[in-house]
């Protein structure tokens, strides 16, 4: 981008007549722009909307409602909060692409979770799902050139994903039986 000194050098090289013509043109252009801005109409006053308006003063404030009391027992709530990040749709979708080390870490973390008796079937399904994905990833990594082994690895990771989704269904069925809101 040219600087001011570049323009000054160009102005020195231009003949006097051309310089006067250029400066006059710039001055007229600036005056025309200023005159155009000065002749702008004043801002119009807003017109009322033809649509009806509603009185919202009778509604309670957005944060004023008290949330409903949770129906699930506290130990189940604590368990669901602890495993929620491992049973989220994004993790279920991305788990087959995780490294074996990361999946082993997830399995170790889930094995250390204290599970309430009501959630044992769901937790076993969650663990089995991650273990199946780990097994599929190990086969995938160890047998990169073998097409049959790659197909086996893919079927194991797909089955592991189905088990993770089944975990979510078991939890949702349990919460629905209690009348609570299902997990997304």
Give structural notes.
- Helix 5 runs antiparallel to helix 6 (120-142).
- The protein has helices spanning 4-13, 16-38, 74-83, 89-94, 100-111, 120-142, 147-178.
- It is mostly helical and 184 residues long.
- 63% of the residues lie in helices and 0% in strands.
- The two termini are 54 Å apart.
- It has two domains: 4-34; 74-178.
- The model has no long low-confidence stretch (mean pLDDT 81).
- It has seven helices and no strands.
Based on the model shown, name its key terms.
7 helices; 184 residues; mainly alpha; 2 domains; single chain; elongated
Layout of helices and strands, plus pairs?
Blueprint (H helix, E strand, L loop, with lengths): L3 H10 L2 H23 L35 H10 L5 H6 L5 H12 L8 H23 L4 H32 L6
Provide the succession of SSEs: HHHHHHH
Structurally, the number of domains stands at 2
Number of strands: 0
In one word, what is the shape?
Answer: elongated
Roughly what percent helix?
A: 55-70%
The average pLDDT is: 81
Largest sheet: number of strands, sense, barrel closure: none
The total of helices stands at 7
Structural class: mainly alpha
Percent in strands: under 5%
Please report the distance between the alpha carbons of the first and last residues: 54 Å
Our Rg estimate from Cα atoms comes to 35 Å
- Low-pLDDT windows of residues: none
Quick take:
This protein is mainly alpha-helical and 184 residues long.
């Amino acid at each position: 981008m040219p600087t001011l000194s570049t323009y000054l050098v160009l102005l020195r090289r231009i003949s006097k007549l051309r310089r006067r013509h250029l400066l006059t043109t710039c001055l007229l252009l600036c005056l025309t722009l200023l005159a155009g801005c000065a002749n702008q109409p004043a801002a119009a006053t807003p017109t009322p909307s033809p649509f009806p308006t509603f009185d919202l003063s009778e509604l309670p404030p957005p944060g004023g409602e008290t949330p409903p009391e949770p129906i699930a027992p506290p130990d189940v709530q604590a368990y669901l909060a602890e495993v929620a990040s491992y049973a989220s749709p994004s993790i279920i979708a991305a788990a087959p692409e995780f490294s074996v080390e990361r999946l082993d870490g997830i399995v170790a973390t889930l094995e250390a979770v204290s599970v309430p008796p009501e959630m044992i079937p769901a937790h076993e399904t969650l663990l089995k799902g991650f273990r199946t994905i780990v097994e599929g990833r190990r086969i995938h990594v160890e047998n990169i050139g073998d097409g049959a082994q790659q197909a086996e690895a893919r079927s194991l990771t797909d089955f592991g994903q189905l088990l993770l989704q089944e975990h979510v269904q078991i939890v949702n069925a349990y919460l629905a039986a209690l009348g609570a809101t299902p997990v997304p």
